[in-house]
Amino acid sequence: MAGKNTYEPVPVEKLRFARTELRIHDTVPATKPIGYMKDAWIRFRRNKMSVAASLIILAIFIFAVITPFINNFEMSSVDGIYAKARPKLKAFERSGFWDGGMNLRLNNRYYMYLTAIGAGAEDVYGAGVTWEDGINSPYYPVISRGEAYDSAGAEFRDARVDSYYIVGFVYVSMTREMFDDVREWEAETGINVFYPMIDTRSRYMDPGNARDANFWYRHAANHAPLNARGQRMDTIEEVMEHGFADNYLRDSEGNARYWVRQDRGMLQVRVLYYNYYQYMNGHEPMHALGADGQGYDIWRRLASGILLSFALAASVSVINLTIGAFWGAAEGYYGGWWDLIAQRICDILWGIPFIVVAALFQLHLVQTGRVSPFWGLVLAFVATGWISTSYTVRTQFYRFKNQEYILAARTLGAKDFRLMFKHIFPNAIGTIITASVLVIPSTIMIESSLSYLGIVAFNTRTTISLGTMTSNAQGFLATDPHILFWPSLIISLLMISFNLFGNGLRDAFNPSLRGTEG
Amino acid sequence: MRMFKYVCKRIGLLIVTFFVIVTICFSLIKLLENEVPLGMQAVVELARREALGYNKPIIEQYGIFLRNVITKWEWGYSWHINYMMPAQETITPRLPSTLLVNAYSIIFCIPVGIALGIWAAIKKNKITDHIISTSVMLFVSVPSFVYAFLMQYTLGFRLGFFPVIVSSLHDAGGSWFTRTMLHSMILPVLALSFGSIAGLARYTRAELTEALTSEYMLLARSKGLTRSRAISTHAMKNAMVPVLPYIFGIVLSVFSGSIIIEAIFAINGVGQLYIRSIHLRDYDVFVVTSAFYTIITLASYILVDLSYGFLDPRIRMGER
């Protein structure tokens, strides 16, 4: 092959310049430069899951912030009578969904008792009501009921019952002035609060029911209603036919009496609690997310718990970052003896189980009243939390401190502090931001675990944490699961979202992943 | 030899750390005021405290404490939980339930977690992988007490498959291994395992996918091995090297998670003892249970570090 290599030399006049009309040189890049942060932001935006997660976090935060303005309840407002009330929205009343209903199994007499609440609410003046009046009353507690069925020889119905109307009537003591005030309010609004008192000494009354203001009808010792002639009515049909016979306290002219004098000038009155509540609070009793075991509004408490979690997690994250950054920078930059000693201190602190730290801080600072529970917990978190940040920073300093650009900066006269925080530290910023964000879910989780265990206590009238809410709710797990549901849901949502958000940040700050995603 | 030296150094460091932590716990707890006893027994109580040296300066008390621990293995006395019982003995009867629940959970979660991880890695980017990865994300994030509640409510209360709380030793017929006891332990074991299973599955998946894309796998396939054989003999071995140390880490996380699970399922274990010692201010019991948890934490850290070195020949121990 080599023998065929017989090229003729090209004469000079055949050569000519190519592209003389073009000037070939570098130009200033026409596009804008993309900095580290902007680059990270572009990559973060592409990660749909993380964006969704950050939106959820934002939504939860906004929910917590605006709650005090749109919710009717104060943090400290508590009503034991509506404790454990189910979630209810006015728009869904009697719809079967989000209507404050709970499922009950009613026997005949209980079904009559509930109908009597509706009927009694229609009978403001003691003039007599029918079964139909009771069923059609707006205060009738039963939302829907199934067909009757036989179980162990007795008749039962499965029914959905409104947990607010089921309270019915309640005895209340009040002063004469307050009585007049309520009467005025009644006249103004047209809502009836006072209902006729019951003759508890009557022979048509089971003495065991004397404190129950819903037994306004004549009944036998087994709670079965009696008709006007004093005969027992055991079936629903009988009651439907004859109606309830009232047992009101009447004066000599036969008019119903609305109060009984008690000692010290107080009056005992019988109120329809739903309406009395409106008089007391200015709004209908309606907990959008239900009421907890003590009668606090879950929505309001939840919002406060969320804010507490956010505040706690943010303070821990910021303080950890600050201490960890300085400690790690000093360790990594100076090295030597200082590094060795600092590392041993870290090793020892790192070995203490967190629960021991938290317990010691609680016993020493919080229970002696030196700091508030909040700051006690922040201190406990910070006591060992900064170590992992300092490890990260230290590693970065070891990696960068011997590089040429540092030497160059030093030669130009940069001081230690400037070298540390202007030249080396920014290299670690992505890792540190990610770590600080990932501290937030773990802080929320540990806080809720600790308050669940009762090691930290946020359970006052004005402060509550999500963990304390779950811990308080555990006793009602079997009967009233909604109390436990909301705080658990929010904790889980926060944890999932913060983890997704943190993972998204980690990927965004990692330039080696550039272009790998679709 | 270098390995032996390194192990000795680590154990020495463990002892020093343990000692320092116990010292901190002891002195901080003794700095707190003891509440003044009331009632008929007050005089006896005060005399007892005097005799046990509770009124001496803390440094002297610490000396007595150390001497008793080292010579007689005495960690002080319980004043509230089991009156006048030596503190270390309050742990003993509560240890089996804690250890059993933890052991069952660890035994359960290791094979399940690894299997799920392997399955997800083999089916990478297929529907199986997506399902496993999403549920792993959920279970890693959601706190264990939330699914403990969920299971308690659905499986325990609504459906009635399992008891809601763990039965006591007496109800279970006096043994830890009766059917009643095992049956009642299923829920707490499950609640304790889910998080660890998810963590383990995620870690295994990450390691195995990395191994599957490596060049030795290409070589194995090109020399004629089937995919399954290449995975089981080549990729798996390498992927398991970092997974095994991770398992030791799981032991620690299971132990610390078990405190809250014990509270939810009313298990009378060490975790409950610890919580009660804080609430009742039973200081000596607090110190000894803190020591118990500290030693578990430290031991698992060491196990993780050492196992890396034993399993991975690329890591030489004792080198900087």
Q: In brief, what are we looking at here?
A:
The complex is a heterodimer of chains A (518) and B (320). With 518 residues, chain A is α+β, with helices and mostly antiparallel strands.
Task: Kindly list the characteristics that best describe this protein.
heterodimer; A: 518 residues; alpha+beta; 4-stranded antiparallel β-sheet; 16 helices; 49% helix; B: 320 residues; mainly alpha; 12 helices; 74% helix; flat
Q: Main beta sheet of chain A, described?
A: 4 strands, antiparallel
Q: SSE string of chain A, helix = H, strand = E? A: HHEHHEEEEHEHEEHHHHHHHHHH
Secondary-structure content class of chain A = alpha+beta
The helix content of chain B, as a percent range, equals over 70%
Unreliable spans of chain B are: none
Largest interface: A-B, 35 and 44 residues
The assembly state of the depicted protein chains is: heterodimer
Compute the number of helices of chain B: 12
Shape of chain A: elongated
Determine the structural class of chain B based on helices, strands and strand pairing.
mainly alpha
Shape of chain B: flat
Instruction: Note the gap between the termini of chain B.
Output: 16 Å
| Contiguous runs where pLDDT drops below 50 for at least 5 residues of chain A | none
Q: Alpha-carbon distance between the termini of chain A?
A: 50 Å
Give structural notes:
The complex is a heterodimer of chains A (518) and B (320). The mean pLDDT of chain A is 87. Chain A contains 16 helices and 8 strands. The longest helix of chain A has 37 residues, at 298-334. Chain A is an alpha+beta fold and 518 residues long. In chain A, strands 1, 2, 3 and 4 form a 4-stranded antiparallel β-sheet that branches. In chain A, strands 5, 6, 7 and 8 form a 4-stranded antiparallel β-sheet that branches. With 320 residues, chain B is mainly alpha-helical. Chain B is 74% helix and 0% strand. Chain B contains 12 helices and no strands. Chain B has helices at 2-31, 42-51, 58-72, 87-91, 95-122, 127-141, 144-158, 179-212, 215-222, 227-264, 270-279, 283-311. The longest helix of chain B has 38 residues, at 227-264. The model of chain B has no long low-confidence stretch (mean pLDDT 85).
